Amino acid sequence: MTCSVRRLFAATAASLAASTAAADKLNTLIPGLYGGDGITLAGTSGGPFPSHAPHFLIDTADNFNRLNDIISAQVGAIPFASAGAGFAFRFDEDLGTFVQTSESFGPVFAERAETIGDRRFNANLSFTFFQYDEFLGQDLDDLVVRTLHDADIIPPFDVRTSFELDTVDVHLNLDVDINALNFAGTYGVTDRLDVGFLVPIADVDVRIVTHAEVVKSPENDIPVDVHTFEGGPESPDDMASGSAQGLGDIVLRAKYHWLESDTNNLAAALLVKTASGDEEDFLGTGDATVRPFLIYSRSFGAFTPHVNLGYEFNLDDSDQNSLEYAAGFDFGAEKLTLAMSVLGSREFGGDGFADTIVNGAIGLKWNPFGSYILTANVLLPLNDDGLRSDFISTLAFERNF
Amino acid sequence: MQQTVRVCRWIRNRSVPDLRPALLLLVLCALRAEAESIALIKSYDSEPYDAAISGFLSSCDTEITEYNLDGNREGSDSLIGSIVRSRPRLIVAIGVLAAEFAKQRFSDVPVLYAMVPEPQEYGLTGSNIAGISLDIPIERQLTVYRSMVPGLKSLGAIYDPRVSGDFIAQATAVAERLGIVLHTRQVESRKQVPAALRELLREEPIDALWMVPDETVLTPESFKFLLLSSFEHKLPFLAASDIFVEVGALASLTPDYADVGRQGCELATALEKGEVSFAQLDVVGPAKVNLSINLKTAKKIGLNIPEDVIAAADVVYR
């Protein structure tokens, strides 16, 4: 992790523009495996089967081909850390006055309705690091992709029969490591209006190791191995790797503390995500989005539940418009706040890949002294959809001015 | 639990070959000290109490033995035994718990209490008990606030009559004497605070909002509402504690806890010398109060606080 941080800082200092360690963009690594045109086995001639150069292709609709899009879509979605600025007290009967008590510093990734106050500024520096572990519930250490034989060797064409039903199963060991250094600031324009920004600098490492094996179909009754890598143009093993560092998708946010009673608070907010990160290097999603949302929070002393509900409009691909929600609470003890939230996203016009993403967030905020707050948070997947990490860690340092 | 603050240090510091005379002197000295010491009883560990005790100890050049109730209203047997054996000539009780404990358990020993709000409410009266209240006289509060808000003619306050009914009755009379009209609205729960405040602001021409120390009215949530409303109406928000000034209220007056200790020493000395009797003393207010002012808030609401008031303030948030 230390090395990654150093590298991130170096990347930040060097340039805010994306730079790629490898010559190729990261999104070319997966399609470029086995030469990028499917898997060609040893040619055959003679024998009881038609002479041909067996060629196995990945279905264009296959999950494998969606990995690129999904990595890009999810890497770029760094959550906006909530700014914490609380104040709590109790009446001390023995002193006959009010004394300051523990305060809750708010949730980590969800929002509560309160704003930070007129002309106050919250600076937040966070480091998020994780590795993807599963894709659609399959372990990324052994992701199996099935490639299919050409269907036009044995008549009738376009229908697979006999050895055309053989497949080549490709076992992928995919490592995608993400480290992101995020600079965020929130400024109180008035007592009820906050504006903020988040600038992520990301470091993405991708490593793919593959091993392919021929799987003979039970319906292929030819007694010899028609399909083999031996003597063919391609090895059953392949690998690719690359890394990129650079600016991610910049996020802008405004929050207006709209309605307030003695305990209930309602705010309206707008989150705008730019497409500043390089999608081809998995540094950004490639799409600009606008998300209006409502925030409700209610305090029961140091216990403050919150609900966020919004709709995200994807300005480049309306099929990816999504309902975004969060619900949870934060609870403040002496100088310490525990925050738990469920963060969800649902694409109604999605294509079946990563349409529903639900994560749980558990975090601690600690105020060691003054107005400094240290935060540790983990995001845990609560469903299997999409490309997921078992554990997304965030460490943050913030200060209120 | 028990700490002898001062002993006959000269004996300990002596280097004599035969220790028997020194030991004899030490015992005699200790007996004499116990018989004539002041017992200082603290309700429990707390920053304000410790500040008052520091003020007392640093001002008083006499033998003092400290005890801590640790929040136990009845006091442990060992603590009571220790106090009885020390035969104190005066008990100084810090905080409500200690004052009540001293009055009930040691009715034959004179008791001087300090750091107690509304002592009459706790029945801390009698022929050999007196003390320093934490209550800042209303007249003093209003006089300071009037000097800070030139032209202050009317104040608005929200209160729960069950909690602050007596205080508001007194405040209304005192304000009237000072030429200030106190406009109030009653609430019975914190949920009624927003409506009560809106009504107050709509119907009464108030020059400032006065936060009385009422735990029904003031919660972290209602405070934010009161504060934001005061900003929106550009009203000075006069708070019940310095903690509110730091986060946006205009000003507050708070007893100086260390000075309460110093004042306690002064009164204890006067009582022991017979310069004043318990009956004469009864209850006195804190001699020194700290004025806190938030100048950012003053600027925000367009209030020019006179320079002499700012110069006299103990805490200024800029």
Task: Describe this entry's structure for a reader.
The complex is a heterodimer of chains A (401) and B (318). Chain A is mainly beta. Chain A is built from two helices and 22 strands. In chain A, a hairpin with a 4-residue loop joins strand 15 and strand 16. Chain B has a seven-stranded mixed sheet with strand order 1-3-2-4-5-6-12, with helices on both faces. Chain B has a seven-stranded mixed sheet with strand order 8-7-9-10-11-13-14, with helices on both faces. Chain B is built from 14 helices and 14 strands. The N terminus of chain B is likely disordered. The longest helix of chain B is centred in the first third of the chain and has 17 residues. By secondary structure, chain B is of the alpha/beta class. Chain B is elongated and about 65 Å long. Classes of the chains: A mainly beta (401), B alpha/beta (318). Chains A and B meet through strand 5 of A and helix 9 of B.
Parts with pLDDT < 50 across at least 5 consecutive residues of chain B: 1-17, 24-35
What share of the residues of chain B does DSSP label as strand, in percent?
Answer: 15-25%
Question: What sequence of helices (H) and strands (E) makes up the elements of chain A?
Answer: HEEEHEEEEEEEEEEEEEEEEEEE
Strand tally of chain B: 14
Amino-to-carboxy terminus distance of chain B: 43 Å
Percent helix of chain B, as a range, is: 40-55%
Principal-axes geometry of chain A comes out as elongated
Q: What's the number of extended β-strand segments of chain A?
A: 22
Helix fraction bin of chain A: under 10%
Sequence of secondary-structure elements of chain B: EHHEHEHEHEEHEHEHEHEHEHHEEHHE
Pick out its properties.
A: mainly beta, 12-stranded antiparallel β-barrel, elongated, B: 318 residues, alpha/beta, 7-stranded mixed β-sheet
Topology:
The complex is a heterodimer of chains A (401) and B (318).
Chain A: H1 2-14, E1 19-20, E2 39-40, E3 55-57, H2 63-75, E4 89-92, E5 97-100, E6 121-131, E7 134-135, E8 138-139, E9 143-149, E10 167-188, E11 193-215, E12 237-247, E13 251-260, E14 264-273, E15 289-298, E16 303-314, E17 322-333, E18 336-347, E19 356-366, E20 372-381, E21 387-388, E22 392-400
Antiparallel strand pairs in A: 1-12, 2-3, 3-9, 4-5, 6-10, 6-22, 7-8, 7-21, 9-10, 10-11, 11-12, 11-13, 13-14, 14-15, 15-16, 16-17, 17-18, 18-19, 19-20, 20-22
Chain B: E1 3-4, H1 9-13, H2 20-36, E2 38-42, H3 47-59, E3 64-68, H4 77-86, E4 90-94, H5 96-105, E5 111-116, E6 129-133, H6 138-148, E7 154-159, H7 161-177, E8 181-186, H8 193-203, E9 208-210, H9 220-232, E10 237-239, H10 242-246, E11 251-255, H11 257-272, H12 278-281, E12 283-284, E13 289-294, H13 295-300, H14 307-312, E14 315-317
Parallel strand pairs in B: 2-3, 2-4, 4-5, 5-6, 6-12, 7-8, 7-9, 9-10, 10-11, 13-14
Antiparallel strand pairs in B: 1-3, 11-13
